[in-house]
Amino acid sequence: MTEMITPEMPGGITGNGRMLAGIKENGQLIRLFWPQIDAGQHLGSFYTGLRPGQGETIWLHLGHWQKQQSYREDTSILVTRLSRPETGLSVEQTDFVLPDDDVLVRHYRIIGGKEVELKPVLVNYCSFLIDESPLYDGMYVAFSRSALVQFRRNVFWALAAPGHRLLGYHCGRRNTYGDPLNAANQGNFPGGSSNIRNSAGAVAWEMAPPAPGKSMEITLYLAAAHSEEELFSLLDRIKSSAGAEWLRQTTAYWHGWLPPAAANNQPDEENLAYRRSLITLKLLTNRDTGGIIAAPEFDPYYTSCGGYGYCWPRDGTYAAVALAEAGYLKEAANFYLFTARIQEKDGSWQQRYFTSGRWAPTWGQQIDQVGTVLWGYGHYYRLAGDERFMEQIWPAASRAADYLTGCISPSNGLPEASMDIWEDEFCQSTYAAAAVYAGLTAAVRLARLKGEDTLSGRWKQAAEQIKTAVQNRLWNGERRCFLRAVAKQVSRDDYERARTRGETVWTGKDPSGLYDLFWIGRDTRIDAALLGLLFPFGLLDPTGTRSGNCLESMRRTLGQSPSGGILRYEDDAYAGGNPWIVTTLWLAIVSARQGRREEARSLYRWALANASPTGLLPEQVDKKRGGPAWVLPLAWSHAMFILCHLALQDGLKGL
């Protein structure tokens, strides 16, 4: 029987593209992914405690601590400060993952208060849930390295504190009478040196007694490898340098990766947020494959959503476009090469993938993703002019363009029905039409460069057919906006209600012929995704009357949240129906490009104001109180922030 892992968003993340750690606002480690940033997730519990002169262990994740968390400027180094003012006790915890080694470093600086006598002892309770399984693991104390080791098949983890003497240890089985948590809480360590299945361990490390008024310090290392031999070699390498040196090297890595500080008139707060967004996208990118996840997984049991720790071709393309526009062409190219490797034989892509390239759980392909990736290929080539890249992606690009050309409905000239951008409707969506148009238009340019005139002609004809269909079939004069979709599949009840209202409806059969399907002709709800007609896909003239009317309808209808921002669409109920960072910045970009600079800056500043205390951007902002409401950090939000930041400086070069 597996243990339920409840949805829990981090306060901050740190990683190196292979290892990704999620850490709560109070410093508690809650997720630890390796050797991919999306798989496996290996953490069960990791607690750190202090031993008072008398009484039970003081756990840092429990009790009434005042907490403050922030990143060291322009790095992924996360600092959590905990304090109990009534006693004077304070702890500063610094977390980071080494850039080139798969090791999470946790440094503690502890100052005892006048009201609390502390022993020079740090206690850890550690239980890995390797590959999210309580089965087939083993744990032992590796005396030759003074380390606690837990393993399952070819995944080995070690907890070590080089330079600090081991004062006590105990291994046992989690959630049984032998669970070492009870011993750790009392400061008693019976000395069990091994365990099998659902293992947990408690250890006590000696710290140097502090001089009066000074702090006690200790550095812990959580290291991962595929065998004991590799693990011990890694521990020996770590031991060769002090924690301060690893901190220096990690700081230098991130400062070297970021561009020089921008010399412009943007406020420092905005430049720092822009750079935080770049770092966040880097952390959410698999350094070995190029895949980019939507967010660190926080709901693996899908109790409140369908999960986020996967690579959507669409979301990843927006991130790659942002990285390319910011000058990170290598990272963008790596993502596109990843998409070329994982493309389906028919030229499409699945809904989402693990960053290894394997399929992730899906509930329906989305044709807009095919168009978006193809458009991204064209955007990258326009920026980089990289002929080798062209040769590498051309087979995937031509397959995708042929797939899209074959998916145009002969009945109305629009792309066939599929799941929409928000993944909650099966329909012929207007956004998907814009994405497919842009993808085919990009393919036309690439084909001409390749001298493939026949292909370019066929694809251009398909793109123009879609553009004409959007303009002639999807305008809703009553609402002065484009339709959200046509040919939408609905429930029987919704079908009956629409029929009663006199709307166009029809029925059909599922592919097996066994079940009835119900359809309505139009979805008239105003949807922020209609912005895609203007940016980034350029199907509409941004100065046209319809464009202006559509934007005004959108501002009026979707901009009514008490906390500000822009909703996704009318009657959105997902996760409370809050305004989204993505949609708000989307409108900001369009407004900036239309010369509405004041409005654009206001929307941009709203997104900045609703970031987390660590500067991470959520998917949604609480509609009543403001601040992060759901999913943190979201790659797409950070991608749109980068694009908006550049748009406000007229710095978008390929869009």
From TrEMBL:
GO biological process: carbohydrate metabolic process
UniProt cross-references to InterPro entries, sorted A to Z: 6-hairpin_glycosidase_sf, 6hp_glycosidase-like_sf, GH15-like
Ranges where the GH15-like domain occurs: 273-496
GO-annotated molecular function: hydrolase activity, hydrolyzing O-glycosyl compounds
Pfam families: Glyco_hydro_15
Protein name in the entry: GH15-like domain-containing protein
